[in-house]
Amino acid sequence: MIRLAMATALVVLTVSAAMMWSGNYDSSPDPKARFQVDAVRLESDRSYVWLELHLKKSGTENHDLLKPVRLVTADNIEHEPADTVFAGNPEKGFTDIWFKFWLEKEDLRGVLNLKINDGTLKIKSSEPIPSLSNNKDTIFNSSDWEKSWLGF
Description:
- By secondary structure, the protein is mainly β.
- The chain has one domain: Immunoglobulins (Immunoglobulin-like, Sandwich), CATH 2.60.40.
- The chain contains 1 helix and 10 strands.
- The strands form 2 sheets. The protein has a 6-stranded antiparallel β-sheet, covered by helices on one side. A 4-stranded antiparallel β-sheet has the order 4-3-7-8, with no helix packed on it.
């Protein structure tokens, strides 16, 4: 019985991960951004949320570390990343970047965009705040959060 439950959980997680990583977040990202959104993860933390963006390099130009990165809400409020993780190296360029933002749940109302390098990436295009349950991550593989979530 336990083996069956573990095997089922493994299959569900594998399929969910495959869907998440094979999804195309935005089919035509801004080339000036130099990166494209791979996936977005939300983690509820009481009345706040952690919003983590996974970006993959989409062109030949490297990320400009001297230019600020900002998440812009529908109210035109800009948020700085609370944490940034890079994959790759500075000499050859970063292949992946993870930006993590600490937000109030109300910040998730309406559209969200990321200003990076000289471009803008669409993070969320739908209006409502997603329903989040405590102790669960929600992963989005499209900017339309109403239609593309994977709850874990």
